[in-house]
Amino acid sequence: MTDSTIIRFDKVTLQYDGDDAVLSDVSFEIEHGKFYTLLGPSGCGKTTILRLIAGFIQPTQGDIYLSGRRINDVPANKRQVNTVFQDYALFPHLNVYENVAFGLRIKKMKQAAIDAKVKEALRFVNLTGYENREIREMSGGQRQRVAIARAIVNEPEVLLLDEPLSALDLKLRTEMQVELRELQRRLGITFIFVTHDQEEALAMSDEIFVLNQGRIEQSGTPTDIYDEPINRFVADFIGESNILPAVMVRDYLVEFAGREFECVDGGFHPGENVEIVIRPEDLEITAPGEGKLKIRVDSLLFRGVHYEIVGSDEDGNRWLVHSTRKAKVGDEIGLDFEPEAIHIMRFGESEEDFDKRIEEFTEVGDED
Amino acid sequence: MKTNSRNLYLIPYAAWIALFVVAPIVLIVYYSFRDIEGNWSLSNYAHFFTPVYMRMTLSSFWYALLITLFSLLVAYPTAYLLTKAKHKQLWLLLIILPSWVNLLLKAYAFIGLFGTYGFANAFLESVGLGRQQILFTDFSFVFVSVYIFIPFMLLPIFNSLEELNPTLIQAARDLGASPWTTFRRVVFPLTIDGVKSGCQAVFIPALSLFMITRLIAGNRVITLGTAIEQHFLVTQDWGMGATIAVFLVIVMAVIMAVTGRRRRGARG
After folding, report:
1. Rg of chain A over CA atoms, in angstroms?
2. What's this model's pTM, rounded to 2 decimal places?
3. Domains identified in chain B, total number
4. How many domains does chain A have?
5. Are residues A119 and A70 in the same domain?
């Protein structure tokens, strides 16, 4: 635990009578001033973690610390955190000004101070001049901003965001991603953002926690998680990928699709069964016969920025390729890739062991 | 063609309104301008604005107000607990069930309970307080009326609480509000429409209660409802009875207009 740790979960379990655990034995630390994302499919427990931090529910076991103080029994209204809800939860009987001022009025702040703070918060979210609007007169994107202003005006140490962009259309969502990231930098406080959208997570976060079935599968920077997924679930959930069974011949040499390939991972037993991941954008199309693999093109989709090509090799393995080069359905093409493009995943490896092995054996500097 | 068939469907509705809403009101207004001899006159109205009737009006309003207030005080927390309960539909049914029983039967049941040798006095005696006069008091009148009106107050409040988005309560707590502040600044303002409908549903009938005034209050409380009944059935002065009825109709219209005017807040 470092000085900059602001939230700490210590073996937190949440379980309702007779049901499977919603969260099981979750431990993590969250540092001050960073943008965190809890990422996972629905029902993985990501919103539960947020609600535990906010204080709407209490853990069955384990402890939660905020700024070094155990807060298991502290009610939601006494915690220095604020939430932006998925449906915004703006008060329909109050206008924009009164919604934003809600928290300040409860603190019995002077009217002049409230005025100044509300104006500033609205300026922060680009809503200057909307003070007297009713909530029902605001669009989805504007409500979103009011919800953010209402939370940040209280100067929380941690801002919790529960899938706040899910109700917006694609263009607005992309805009808000940039704005939220920008806002977090300007405020310098910790954001904990919950989403099931991996692109959103990769684009915005300093650190991502990938969750599945009430457990943290992997945590790390977006590049760590994208380039070095710990297992099939993470690889599959974060971006598209080719995942194949393989055998480690020895360290730095792996066999799959009937051939041996050089790779950059080590620390395995010779002959160990593993899985390999190759990202579709790391595969390069070459003339048939050249390159490391030969596949027959089964389908071709134009995706705008690239073509999405699905093909199969002689062993029947399916290959997904993203390329700016076009191919014809039914043609044979060659595929080339660098040794660094192969990422090897051990079965059932813990995050701790995984990190240790990566640190010890990866020779190419892939941290940027 | 299309509008024709639509108008056809409107006939039963229009006939109903004409026969059972418009016609009775017209008749009441007509009778209110006839004196006991059957001549056109304003004497009924002149008579109505005398101290006797004014006092009666005042006490009607006072008791209706008390009944509404106590119903609200009982019904709101009950409705709130109900929305949190596990089998809320069952509990709701149990609370509404007594309103299916005839009013007279319930009144007689209370005579039995509150009577000199009734259950309530037996209980008071066993705890050492001795027998009390319970029946024929203001207390018993208000108590029984509140009991009868509670379902009418409870239902609209229950519905508005059910409609309330629970995330709003979490949002208020998140922003630092204590449970009481959350109730005062979020829950109550957002369920005020239910409270208003409940108050309308209780206050207006409570103004013209008559059966209970005689059976439970022993005619010690004389409300406008009792006066109307007496004029039509006992003194046969239909004109005076109709005048009081006209007054009540006007008061009800005013109450509905005042409490119903506020626009509804859009839901978040």
Report:
1. 24
2. 0.80
3. 1
4. 2
5. yes
Residues A93 and A196 in one domain: yes
For residue range A176-214, list pLDDT tens digits in order: 899 899 999 999 999 999 999 998 999 999 999 999 999
**In which domain, by residue range, is B240 found?**
51-100+137-260
For chain B, give the mean pLDDT: 87
Which of A53, A58, A71, A77 to substitute to test the interface with B, most B CBs within 10 Å?
Answer: A77
Please say whether the beta carbons of A42 and A89 come within 8 A: no
In this predicted structure, the answer to whether residue B3 has a pLDDT above a threshold of 90 is no
Question: Which residue range is the domain that position A101 belongs to?
Answer: 5-227
| CATH code: domain of residue A212 | 3.40.50.300
Q: Which ranges of chain A would DSSP assign to H, the alpha helix?
A: 46-54, 96-106, 111-124, 140-152, 170-187, 198-204, 222-227, 232-237, 351-361
Which of chain A's residues have a Cβ under 8 Å away from the Cβ of B263? none
A160: closest chain B residue by CA: B174
**ipTM > 0.90 (yes/no):** no
Give the count of Cβ contacts less than 8 A between chain A and B: 74
Binary contact (B265, A87; C-beta < 8 A)? no
The segment with the largest mean pLDDT, out of A105-119, A249-263, B205-219, is A105-119
Q: What is the CATH number of the domain that holds B164?
A: 1.10.3720.10
Predicted local distance difference test score (pLDDT) of residue A316: 85
CB contact under 8 A, A77 and B174: yes
Q: Which chain A residue's Cα is nearest to B167?
A: A89
- The residues of A whose Cβ lies within 8 A of any Cβ of B are 54-56, 75-78, 81-83, 85, 87-93, 102-103, 106-107, 134-136, 143, 150-151, 154
Q: Please enumerate in sequence order all residues whose Cβ is within 8 A of that of B33, keeping only pairs 6 or more positions apart, or say none.
A: B40, B41, B42, B44, B239
A249 assigned to some structural domain: yes
For residue B192, give the chain A residue with the closest CA.
A93
Cα–Cα distance measured from residue B220 to residue B241, given in angstroms and rounded to the nearest whole number: 20
Q: How many other C-beta atoms lie within 10 A of the C-beta of residue B120? A: 18
What's the rounded mean pLDDT across residues A228-244? 90
Are A198 and A332 in a shared domain? no
Cross-chain Cβ contact B174/A92 below 8 Å? no
Residue B266 lies in a domain: no
Confidence at residue A366, expressed as pLDDT on a 0 to 100 scale: 45
Nearest by CB to A76, from B168, B174, B190: name it.
Answer: B174
Domain presence at residue B166: yes
pLDDT at A326: 85
Q: How confident is the model at residue B265 (pLDDT cuts 50, 70, 90)?
A: very low
For every residue of A171-232, which 3-state class applies, written as one string? Answer: HHHHHHHHHHHHHHHHHCCEEEEEECCHHHHHHHCCEEEEEECCEEEEEECHHHHHHCCCCH
In a domain, A73, yes or no: yes
Asked, for residue B44, whether it belongs to a domain, the answer is no
* A189–chain B nearest CA distance, Å: 17
Residues of B in contact with A83 (CB under 8 A): 170-171, 174
B251 within a domain of the structure (yes/no): yes
Q: Do A54 and B176 touch (CB under 8 A)?
A: no
Residue A233 covered by a domain: no
pLDDT digits (tens, 9 = 90+) for A42-93: 889 899 999 999 999 999 999 999 998 999 999 999 999 999 999 999 999 9
Tell me if A103 and B176 make a contact (CB, 8 A cut-off).
yes
Q: What distance lies between CA A231 and its chain's CA centroid?
A: 16
